[in-house]
Amino acid sequence: MTEMKEVVLPGEFIAERKGRKVGRGAYFEGEKVFAAVLGIPRVDENEISVISLSGVYAPSIGDKIVGIIQAVEISGWTVDVNSPYLAFLPLSEGVGEFVDTQRTDISRFYDVNDVISCKISKVTKNKTVQVSMRSIGSRKLYGGITIKVTPTKIPRIIGKGGSMISLIKEKTGCEITAGQNGIVWIRGERKDKAIEAIMTIERESHTIGLTEKIEKMLSEVV
Amino acid sequence: MSETDEKMIVDGKRLDGRLPNQLRPIKMEVKIINRANGSALVNFGGTYAIASVHGPRALFPRWMQESDTGILRCRYNMAPFSVEDRKSPGPDRRSVEISKVARLAMEPAIFLEDFPKATIDVFIEVLQADGSTRVTGINAASLALADAGVPMKDLVTACSVGKINGTLIVDLNGKEDNNSEADMAVAMLPTKKKITLLQMDGVVSKEELMTLVNLAEKSCEKIYELQKQALKEKYKRI
Q1: How many domains does chain A have?
Q2: Around Cβ B44, how many Cβ atoms within 10 Å?
């Protein structure tokens, strides 16, 4: 992480625009760029943006998420992606093989309440969201449980280069998939310990030396 | 409005010992309700208001959805125990009106177009009323919106001003509110210096009106500093 900056509030002046792109969490009036959300400002030579510290998940293309099938439609599924908008998983994006919808009931592939790891493939202007299973890592997640955390805390749970999540996986022997939308899927004997660790990270995500703390916490129980 | 013979201003000081342009002691705290996306408690002297924000979330029934923008829904409610004589619970003419003006005061600040088809729900609960409840509620709601991570142009800061015994005063308490010659609620975007709510009751001259607006603007600046402090306090270690 680069240098820590002061938290900015909505409406606070960040920097002069100087021809730069104004990204997420910021807006401009004339040549001045202001924060739109409460967060940490990020100013570099190409872009000015604010990393939000709270808020709901806003789908964007390419996000790897964990979704829960909400309904089975005629040629696809509606998926709950923990955002204000439901996503749609078309049959062709969900199953690799040819399926005759006249003869088969597509709930044999994914049924209501099934958990899937998928990728956001399309978001239109008025927020119609489409997800796809045609990417590396996308799969159906069998068994296990899901928990919801604040989506902005997911990078902290994953850690630098996946350090934090692999620590939890290693110490508890659980399989964990953390979606960028804030849904975390956990399967394993000692999932209670994994949940405890994830909740601790969510609660104390702002503190330094968290990896050591989690390591100690998980070592104690063995 | 009931006029009494009691002097509301004695030796340049108000009944509670304040100067005409002095605010009551103000306390603000964010993140007080875990189940909401954002929440805040704001306390102006004897007035306490809690605001919670849920969303942006999916909006149902579907006919209420707007395909190009989100909507803001606001509910102002006074607890039955908030006033001296028990208030019968539930919405009444007064709270329906205040819900609407609070919504209109906050709408210009929010980037609702970022959330088409969705809604942002704001609930303002007045726990204890001692004058200026709508501005306290709006201050709390704007803190709760910022806490919920809702994109906004600016915070919304509100303040009440009025005229009593011929003196212009700020931040009226319950007794002053009942005995004032005029009272005015002002909400504004503090860094943009734009007014989003201006309601007035009573009689003042044109010059006095302009002075009142200026007074409100100055008080809003003070309140804005406290709002900033309350939010930064909660998030400073991140």
Answers
A1: 3
A2: 27
CB atoms A9 and B232 under 8 Å: yes
Cβ contact B111–A152 (<8 Å) = no
Q: Is the pLDDT of residue B145 over 90?
A: yes
Range of the domain at A24: 13-52
Which domain-ending residue is among A141, A162, A187?
Answer: A141
Domains defined along chain B, listed by start: 15-230 (3.30.230.70)
Distance in angstroms (rounded) separating the CA atoms of residues B98 and B94 = 6
Structure tokens at B101: 């003006």
Identify the sign of the CA torsion B26, B29, B30, B35. Answer: negative
Whether the bond into B61 is cis, omega within 30 of 0? yes
Share of chain B above pLDDT 90, in %: 89
Look at the block and give the residue holding tokens 């399926």: A99
Query: What's chain B's average pLDDT?
Result: 93
Minimal C-alpha gap between B9 and chain A (Å): 38
Residues A196-213: pLDDT tens digits? 999 999 888 777 788 888
ipTM score of complex: 0.89
* Gap between the terminal Cα atoms of chain B: 49
| Closest CB to A10 among B57, B146, B237 | B146
Check CB contact under 8 Å for B191 and A152: no
Query: What CA–CA distance (Å, rounded) separates B79 from A168?
Result: 46
CA distances to A154, A205, B38, B102, B189 from A3, in Å: 20, 17, 28, 39, 31
User: What is the C-alpha separation between B65 and B116, in angstroms, rounded?
Assistant: 8
Nearest to B116 among A13, A55, A126 (CB): A126
B192: which 2 tokens? Answer: 């943009």
Q: Which residue of B has its CA nearest to A11?
A: B154
* Best residue of B34, B194, B235 to probe chain A, by most A CBs closer than 10 Å: B235
Q: Where are the beta strands (DSSP E) in chain A?
A: 13-16, 21-22, 26-29, 32-35, 39-43, 47-52, 64-72, 76-80, 86-90, 115-123, 129-132, 139-141, 145-148, 175-178, 183-187
